[in-house]
Structures are given as C-alpha cells and as structure tokens.
Records
---
Amino acid sequence: MNEKCLFCQIVNREESAFIVAENAKALAILDAFPVSDGHTLIITKEHFPNIATVDAKSWEYLLPLIQEVINKLKNTKLPMLPQGFNIVSNMNEIAYQSIPHVHLHIIPKYEKNHGFIWTSQPQLKYSLSAVAQKLK
Ligand SMILES: [Zn+2]
C-alpha cells in the first residue's frame, strides 16, 4: 500500500468510489471522468506503479475481472448494448497515465465517433522487419 495513492485508498475503503465488481486481487470501479457510459477501471488491490510491474498472481485476477465487467456492461445495456470495447492501459505520464497505480480502462463503444477515439501520429524510424529483427 502506498498511503498517498488514491487507488490504494479506494482499495482500503478510505476514499469512495463506485465499485462495480471485485475479486481477491482486483477491483473494478467506475472512472470518475468517464468518456462513455459504463467506463470502468480495473485496478490491482496491491500497489503496482504500472502494467509492466504487475506480478503474475495479480494478472490471474485482472483478466477474469475484465471479462466479468465486459459481460456486465453487455447485459446491462447501459444506455444500450455496446458495439465494442476499448481496453487501454496507459503507462507513465508521457503516455497519459495520471495515477501511478496500475489500471486498465474498459471503455464501452456505442457509436463509432463517440467515446474513445484512436488517433496516432506515426513518426517511424525503422521498417517492420528491422523492428522485428531487434525484438527477437
Ligand atoms: Zn496505489
């Protein structure tokens, strides 16, 4: 636990949040600044700064909770049946991580031009084959 961390405080019920699902190692809460109805965050109960630092045991609990929340959002049809979902985890401030406690966004997609919009500005220095060669 990190005492100054908002998500650790939510896990310990020291700060309030709308909790929509929970298991032994993870918690699902509504995002306080939703980009679509039902925008939910999956957070670990243990403090990990970002997705790259999560231990194997916590991963076992994160993935089922993602599926559970997706199924709840499909069944609830809030405000209608989502046509899809974006599952996003931002890592580090440069990539828009605002709270340094790992969280995965589940963002229901109801209409193509609403909610989460994928934009990118590619500036590539390597070909795909060069990248693949370096990553092997
Ligand atoms: Zn924390």
---
Amino acid sequence: MTDKFESVCVLGLGYIGLPTAATLAAAGLAVKGVDIRTDVVDALNAGDAHFSEPDLELLVRGAVESGKLKAYTKPQPADAFIITVPTPMNGDKSPDMSFVDAAMRSLMPVLAPGNLVLLESTSPLGTTASIAGIVREERPDLVDGDALKISLAYCPERILPGQMVRELVENDRIVGGLMPEDAARARDLYKTFVHGEVHQTDAITAEMVKLIENAYRDVNIAFANEVAAIGETHGIDPWEAISLANRHPRVNILSPGPGVGGHCIAVDPWFLITQNPGLAGLMNAARSVNDGRPETIVGKIEAAAEAAGSKRIACLGLAYKPNVDDLRESPALEIVRELAQRGYDVSAVEPHVDALPSKLAEAGSVTLRSLDDAFGASDVVALLVAHTPFADVTAGMLGGKAVVDAVGLWRRQG
Ligand SMILES: NC(=O)c1ccc[n+]([C@@H]2O[C@H](COP(=O)([O-])OP(=O)(O)OC[C@H]3O[C@@H](n4cnc5c(N)ncnc54)[C@H](O)[C@@H]3O)[C@@H](O)[C@H]2O)c1
C-alpha cells in the first residue's frame, strides 16, 4: 500500500529547499514554502528564485503561476513536512543545530496525526532520534507509548549545484526511517518526483551515508592536493603525473585545486570528526590539508608577483566551484581577501556575480572587472576557478604575464 500525499510544507527555501519545493509543485502537489527571510518569501510569491541555478527560474515561475507553490513566513498545515534549513559549524567546528531545532519546534503547532516529517539538512549521527524528542516534549498528544503518531525520517540531499534541477529528479535517494514504516512513507513521497531509485534504511544509517559521502570526497581531494604539493616542490606537473597514474585501471586520483569550499564538503566531515574524537584521524588530516591549500596558492601568487615586480594581480573566479554563483566557504574568495590584505591591487573576475561580496568590497583594493579589463589592469594572472569561459583564454591573451593556474586548466598555455 502506498501513501498519497497531496500537500507538502517545505521549511527553508535555500539552495536545497527552493528547488525541492518547486519540483514537488511541478509534480502536482500543493506546496507551501516557508522561510524566516521575508525577502525570500516575497521573491517566491512574485515568481522569482532568489539565487541563480540553471532552469530554476523557469521551474519556480511555472510552479507559482500554476498556484501549486506559495510561500509563507510560518509553517502551514500539510500532509508532509520537509526541513531544509542550514546546519553550519560553531566556532569549535561542532555542528550548529539551532536552525534544525528551531524549524522542528516551529512546526509543532501545525503537526497532525499521520503527518510525515522529513529532515534533509545534513546532520550529525542521532539527530533524527533527537528531534523526535521535541515531539515527545511539545506534543504529548502525538505520542503513543514508545511510538509517535507521526512518521519521521532522515533523507539526505546530494544534488550538485549547477545541475540541481536535473539531479533532484534523476539521483538515487536514501530514506532512513525512525521506524521501518516511516522510511516506506518517505519513499512514497519521493517517488512522486524522483526517477532514480529510492533506497530505504534506518535514520542513523541515512545520517551516516550523507556524512561519509562528503568526508570521502574531502579525503580524496586532500590526497590530490597533497600530491600537488609534493609535485610542485620537485618541479613535477601534478596534473600530468595524476593523469598518467590514472591510466592504472584501479586508480582514479582527483584533480588538485585551491582548496575545498561550499556548504558541504568543507563542513560536513567536521560533524563526524567532532562527534568521534580519536576515530576520525584521516578525516581530520584531510581537513587540514585542504584548509591549508589557499595559503599555499597565495604563496605561489606572491612569488609570481615578486618575480614580475608588480602588485597588479587578476584573480579569475571567486565561487567555490566552476559554473556556479555560490561563494560560501570559497577558497578563491579567501585567496583574494588575503592578497588584498597583503597590499596587492586585485582585479577579481567572477562572471556569475554582479557585485563583490561585502568581505571583499570592504578590503578596498579589490575591483570586480570583466576578463578583458582585468587583463588590462594586471601583470599576474591567477586562475582560481575553472569556470567554462576561462577555458577560452588563449596563450596570446596571457602573453607576457606571470600565470598561476591553481586548477590545471591552462597547463599548456602558461
Ligand atoms: N547547498 C547544497 O548544495 C547542499 C547539498 C546537500 C545538502 N545540503 C544541506 O542542506 C541544508 C540546507 O542547505 P542550503 O544550501 O539549502 O542552505 P541555505 O542557507 O541556502 O538555505 C536555508 C534556508 O533556510 C532558511 N531558514 C533558516 N531557519 C529557518 C526556519 N526555522 N524556518 C524556515 N526557514 C528557515 C534560511 O533563511 C535559508 O533561506 C544544509 O544542512 C546543507 O548542509 C546542502
């Protein structure tokens, strides 16, 4: 028997919640999006996405115009609830669960027997069980001995920024129920729009799955960055060495870069590390390799600038990865800020933003420029993000300039 869900309330309309809400609406469900930010709610009710992501604007507009998607500042009654609020780190790198806690508490007044509550926010082990405690505490009428009269499941998200709209539908999903029937109900809801497989497990295993996916990526990127550091010290092109090593049928080394950024890979491993001191040494080492990488790249840029006898540097890319406008935890941003603090005159080129983020605007000596203007205003060019348009830069355009390619895109041109 499958559950029929007609309405869903999505709490948190950010990078994950907004595409999820719009996709559910496109699948025919009545979706109530909730955010504590009134600007986000107003933009959505006007049919606009408040961040840029391929195909999202069209999806959101269609969902709002069809009347299937409406936004609110407070949770609304629904058959199911999806929580997609932030889970940042505290100063000591432990997870800050205050947003999840607040979101869960905010839906207590509207929760009804038979509802399904899904947590999608990346969370430390045991979070789903612990938010069940909020229901026990605040809604004793929804408690039946050891059981709850609602279903609760953890359903991690793994969509790739830049391809979110497609991956939301095509990726396999993991749904972890607090009780086995909770996972089955979560599966029924995802099957309304997911074409990939939906795999059922228990809640804590699903929490673990999300964290080890990102820790795995972090450890493997750290390996590539360590290879780069060793290679560069010995005058070896790490990209060439890695590409040749990858000719081995069982070797697949990732590409080195300026560090690891974004909301996920640079953050989530800490959830396991801080929760399991003494058990996560490898993950801890990977974090420090990747966190140290921006400083190494700054050193390379400084050396190139000194050799060129110039303080004028063009930095290409501010986003944390290619072809997105997301600057969160971006190592490129950190590199540019550090160069500005050290007195360099930096021309930043970021085709995906219209204005510098306040962190850089305040630095004074950073100017957002077009690629051509930045080349005209610099003697050193540092490529920090492999945005597609930067692949068109020719050796002729770089002629006479010192080049630091932190992502290996121009290896043959520099
Ligand atoms: N962005 C990604 O690529 C990605 C991928 C996988 C998992 N995740 C995880 O998904 C979760 C959400 O990430 P995101 O990137 O969408 O974050 P985000 O910051 O883009 O969006 C979160 C939204 O939640 C809102 N919010 C905060 N508290 C709220 C509350 N109590 N009620 C309603 N709204 C509230 C915020 O105003 C914000 O608009 C995080 O745990 C993140 O780790 C993100």
